[in-house]
Backbone:
């Protein structure tokens, strides 16, 4: 009799365990954060970073397990100021940024991936 009760309990546990819904929370895999031109084109190594040119941050992710199409935010900071970009599917999103004179650092909050770029604004003084 005890064996029958144990078997019945085991069957009930397995039945309820297998009926649980799979997690519907999306999984975000961070691939890259980078500085790019405003149109999304990559900045070539050694390119002159001009204060008159528009730049952006590009964040690329893979997103899996999102059957409901929920928006997922990727949090990052630019020069210590927090911001975020939302994704409904994987891919790359671009966000225009304003660079500061000197070192600019963009870093994802969760994975600590980072990109760096230096804007060197030289100030000249007219001497007569």
Residues:
């Amino acid at each position: 009799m005890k064996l029958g009760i144990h078997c019945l309990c085991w069957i009930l546990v397995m039945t309820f365990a297998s009926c649980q819904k799979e997690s519907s929370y999306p999984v975000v895999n961070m691939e890259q954060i980078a500085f790019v031109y405003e149109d999304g084109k990559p900045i070539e190594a050694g390119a002159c970073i001009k204060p008159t040119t528009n730049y952006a941050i590009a964040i690329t992710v893979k997103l899996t397990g999102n059957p409901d199409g929920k928006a997922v935010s990727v949090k990052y900071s630019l020069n210590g100021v927090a911001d975020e970009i939302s994704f409904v599917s994987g891919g790359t999103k671009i966000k225009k940024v304003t660079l500061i004179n000197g070192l600019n650092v963009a870093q994802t909050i969760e994975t600590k991936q980072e990109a760096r770029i230096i804007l060197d604004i030289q100030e000249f003084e007219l001497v007569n």
Notes: Strands lie at 27-37, 55-64, 72-78, 81-87, 91-97, 102-108, 114-119. Residues 2-19 form the longest helix (18 residues). The first strand starts at residue 27 and ends at 37. The chain has one domain: 24-119.
